[in-house]
Amino acid sequence: AQTVTQSQPEMSVQEAETVTLSCTYDTSESDYYLFWYKQPPSRQMILVIRQEAYKQQNATENRFSVNFQKAAKSFSLKISDSQLGDAAMYFCAYRYQGAQKLVFGQGTRLTINP
Amino acid sequence: GAVVSQHPSRVICKSGTSVKIECRSLDFQATTMFWYRQFPKKSLMLMATSNEGSKATYEQGVEKDKFLINHASLTLSTLTVTSAHPEDSSFYICSARSDRGSIYSNQPQHFGDGTRLSIL
What we know:
The complex is a heterodimer of chains A (114) and B (120).
Chain A: E1 3-5, E2 10-14, E3 19-21, E4 24-26, E5 32-39, E6 46-52, E7 60-61, E8 64-69, E9 74-79, E10 88-96, E11 103-104, E12 108-113
Parallel strand pairs in A: 2-12
Antiparallel strand pairs in A: 1-4, 3-9, 5-6, 5-10, 7-8, 8-9, 10-11, 10-12
Chain B: E1 4-7, E2 10-13, E3 19-25, E4 32-38, E5 44-51, E6 57-58, E7 67-73, E8 76-81, E9 90-97, E10 110-111, E11 115-119
Parallel strand pairs in B: 2-11
Antiparallel strand pairs in B: 1-3, 3-8, 4-5, 4-9, 5-6, 7-8, 9-10, 9-11
């Protein structure tokens, strides 16, 4: 069975600094997708960034980038120049090719200190 | 693009009442919709997956007769909590995804805003 683990229940960072959220997963599949979702206090789940496992290049979306290490089954999220609006719960998620449902990690609560 | 609307955002009702929650994909055809339940400070727990025109597939431990799911069209799915009790109080979230065409095979799920259900 596939599992996703986020080992940091809470993280905090000073505004304008960089923070990295960790995510590891376990799978025997070779083709899959990885996602980071953000859930702010408003509770809506927002897609932050996604990575296809067959791509070696790490995905980047503005201030958000990932460090995808396929052999290590690691998928960390780096947030640069942290802003107050980045404060939220962050969930790492996995879906293998051909599957419909996502497997979510436990989440990491990110606090931004002004 | 890829907007999912969930309604209502909050429901407060008496024990024994049945409550219907709607999930609509506004600008794409959702071949698959998902219903999640989220407890405070916890991750999302998948309740069921529904494909348009067919019966929903429920996760283990989810009561089919308690949580009725209908996915009658490519833009609408409903979750009905029947004879709701206080233990059904929770945050319910829907999401939608399109599998139309090979270019959509890597499409992510798009989430609604969620519904806070409180049973008195």
